[in-house]
């Protein structure tokens, strides 16, 4: 998880992408599908802001179907094709729970300030009768 020792870049990526969802399913068993057609199924121990995933008690299935048991497994984010989110996970609840812990929550409503428009004086515009 992008915690106290995380760089600003890592924290930004965690809060501005779905990585926060992956961080919310830590300590759960799931399957990570890799770009080379292999899969790893096991307990997610850690997910950092670059989507690097550390797992334990993993069953690794290579692209040719060979199964291998591993105590620990680490995969770099760019090598990941998909992460299967367990069916019983409420994704919105998980993301809402993760974002405030990172110093940010999901925004509600509109912000303050002038926004995109010029926001000039509208009293000079013709008023409908």
Description:
This protein is α+β, with helices and mostly antiparallel strands. It has helices at 8-15, 19-24, 91-101, and strands spanning 29-34, 39-47, 53-61, 67-75, 80-83. It has a five-stranded antiparallel sheet with strand order 4-3-2-1-5. A hairpin with a 4-residue loop joins strand 1 and strand 2. The relative contact order is 0.18.
Please provide a brief summary of the model.
By secondary structure, the protein is α+β, with helices and mostly antiparallel strands.
**Structural shape:** elongated
Give average pLDDT, whole number: 81
C-alpha Rg (nearest Å): 21 Å
Kindly estimate the percentage of residues that lie in beta strands according to DSSP: 25-35%
Derived structural class: alpha+beta
**Percent helix among the residues?**
10-25%
Biggest β-sheet description = 5 strands, antiparallel
How many DSSP E strands?
5
Distance between the termini: 59 Å
Low-confidence stretches: 104-109
